[in-house]
Backbone:
């Protein structure tokens, strides 16, 4: 039984892999593009079958052509050259269109999958949930969906390319095998041998030799190259992590330079790259051994059929043309049976890619299932549209540690509320809950029965949230200012007025200037540009998370006075998170987060005062 354990394990892995391939592939062929996708696939299949048919005709041509050479039959020779020209022309036409339509199927499939995954990744803030879970795990799992950018950009491309290429290649191998095995069987003749005084005849000897040659080669090739798939998986992960850290250094270049952290980052990058090189060397050793085997296997296959059939040729049983036809047919059968050997490296890459995409898709689907829908604002005719109101909320960390318990919030139009508390007490998390991006929260009614979050939290319409570290897309200043709205939503006059209100009059003439604004601006300028975005949109409700922490007190005073004037005029309210004591002067109410157990900041209660 132990003898079969490796084969059972291999079969189970193969079944799991094929199930994942089916799960990842089926949506495209059932999508709105299903008819064009299926038509392209059928066309590729037809062209592959046509290619095999041309090869069968070329195999028969081999016999006639080489017999003409052996018999010095000049008319047949020239006639067969004309036949070859027609067959070669057909081969070229089929090969060109097979390549074109295969590539067309791959790029269309990749485009659809990329759009689908981008939609999944961005819907319900899944991109934020993935990063949140990874940042709170303190370590990176080998099977986790690390580097989603690589999954979407690189793995989808590899998956579609390898799935189409390998699937059509396998079909081609099976059809070729079915077409040439009969030819080879008929050409093989019988192999006679005596055993204990009895003579036996083995029909289709060359077919059995091809089967034996390919079987032994496939088994040996698997045991030589079986480590390729996990090493490929690890290589992609290590490469992505190295590239990700390079991007982080670009993003935080100023902070790293100010901290004199260049040497630390250099050592960190060297360590990560050492991991890349170390894994690659292991992969290279496996690939080297496999290349030794596959090269020897391929070269031996060239002369093997001639060696086996040579005794019949020298005995005069077959002519040169038939010998060449046997060699050609054997080559086609052996090549078909050796499909796994010839594609083992690509199969290993395909397996690793499929596993990464399956894990990524599973995690997105899991997060979508456990994430609550973004809190929907009340309609304008609702009585609750003029206030923020929640039922009792329990807010936890992903590990289920309670951060805030039994929190009931109420803010009416015209209010200004300041949220304060020690670091780590859940101030920013409370705003994340209100924004609808923190999934680890439950709501309770008066009888302590669970509520849907959309029922537990009533958020008024026309509300904006200002993070402490704002994001600005690359491009022109008007793009950064109008984000995420379209640029043509606002006029130049409106944008310039918003910049003046946010104390950035010097930027009024730079609306069309292109730059990386997140890095070009100082911390105070970035926060003021975020405020300019708020003044431009004129929301009724503003939720600010340390939104003026980088401003001087004079600028902060002007900004807050203008924010209060705006929300009051719009019939809304202002809710702020801040540590700086001076911010309290611009708020009427205080929500103070207080420790419920001494020495702990993991569990707090909310105290409300005026």
Residues:
């Amino acid at each position: 039984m132990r003898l079969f354990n490796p084969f059972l394990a291999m079969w189970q892995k193969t079944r799991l892999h094929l199930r994942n391939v089916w799960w990842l592939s089926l949506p495209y062929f059932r999508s709105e593009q299903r008819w064009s996708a299926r038509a392209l696939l059928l066309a590729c299949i037809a062209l592959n079958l046509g290619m095999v048919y041309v090869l069968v005709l070329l195999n028969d041509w081999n016999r006639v052509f080489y017999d003409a050479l052996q018999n010095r039959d000049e008319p047949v020779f020239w006639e067969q050259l004309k036949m070859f020209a027609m067959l070669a022309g057909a081969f070229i036409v089929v090969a060109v269109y097979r390549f074109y339509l295969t590539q067309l199927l791959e790029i269309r499939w990749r485009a659809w999958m990329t759009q689908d995954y981008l939609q999944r990744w961005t819907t319900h803030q899944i991109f934020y949930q993935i990063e949140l879970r990874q940042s709170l795990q303190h370590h990176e799992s080998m099977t986790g969906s690390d580097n989603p950018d690589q999954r979407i950009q690189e793995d989808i491309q590899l998956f579609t390319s390898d799935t189409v290429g390998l699937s059509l290649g396998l079909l081609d191998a099976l059809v070729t095998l079915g077409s040439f095995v009969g030819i080879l069987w008929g050409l093989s003749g019988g192999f006679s041998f005596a055993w204990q005084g009895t003579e036996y005849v083995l029909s289709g000897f060359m077919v059995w030799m091809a089967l034996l040659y390919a079987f032994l080669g496939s088994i040996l090739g698997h045991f030589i190259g079986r480590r390729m798939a996990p090493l490929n998986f690890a290589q992609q992960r290590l490469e992505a992590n190295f590239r990700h850290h390079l991007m982080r250094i670009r993003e935080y270049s100023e902070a790293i330079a100010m901290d004199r952290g260049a040497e630390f980052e250099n050592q960190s990058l060297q360590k990560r790259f050492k991991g890349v090189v170390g894994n690659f060397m292991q992969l290279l050793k496996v690939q080297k051994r496999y290349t030794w085997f596959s090269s020897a296997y391929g070269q031996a296959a060239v002369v093997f059929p001639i060696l086996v059939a040579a005794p019949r040729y020298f005995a005069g049983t077959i002519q040169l043309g038939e010998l060449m036809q046997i060699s050609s047919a054997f080559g086609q059968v052996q090549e078909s049976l050796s499909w796994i050997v010839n594609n083992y490296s690509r199969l290993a890459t395909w397996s690793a890619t499929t596993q990464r995409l399956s894990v990524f898709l599973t995690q997105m689907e899991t997060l979508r299932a456990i994430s609550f829908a973004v809190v929907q604002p009340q309609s304008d005719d609702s009585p609750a549209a003029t206030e923020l109101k929640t039922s009792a909320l329990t807010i936890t960390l992903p590990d289920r540690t309670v951060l805030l318990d039994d929190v009931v919030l109420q803010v009416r139009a015209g209010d200004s509320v300041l949220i304060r508390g020690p670091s780590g007490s859940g101030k920013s998390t409370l705003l994340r809950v209100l924004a609808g991006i923190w999934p680890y929260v439950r709501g309770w009614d008066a009888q302590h029965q669970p509520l849907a979050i959309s029922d537990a939290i009533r958020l008024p319409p026309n509300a904006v949230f200002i993070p402490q570290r704002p994001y600005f897309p690359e491009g022109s200043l008007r793009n950064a200012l109008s984000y995420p709205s379209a640029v043509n939503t606002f006029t130049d006059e409106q944008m310039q007025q918003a910049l003046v209100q946010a104390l950035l009059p010097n930027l009024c003439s730079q609306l069309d200037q292109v730059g990386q604004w997140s890095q070009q601006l100082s911390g105070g300028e970035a926060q003021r540009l975020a405020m300019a975005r708020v003044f431009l949109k004129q929301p009724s409700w503003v939720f600010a998370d340390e939104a003026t922490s980088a401003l001087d007190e004079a600028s902060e005073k002007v900004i807050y006075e203008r924010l209060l004037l705006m929300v009051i005029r719009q019939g809304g309210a202002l809710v702020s998170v801040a540590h700086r004591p001076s911010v309290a002067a611009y708020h009427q109410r205080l929500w103070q987060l207080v420790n419920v157990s001494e020495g702990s900041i993991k569990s707090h209660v909310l105290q409300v005062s005026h």
In short: Confidence is low (pLDDT under 50) at residues 138-143, 373-381, 598-603. The radius of gyration is 35 Å. Residues 262-314 form the longest helix (53 residues). The longest strand covers residues 589-595.
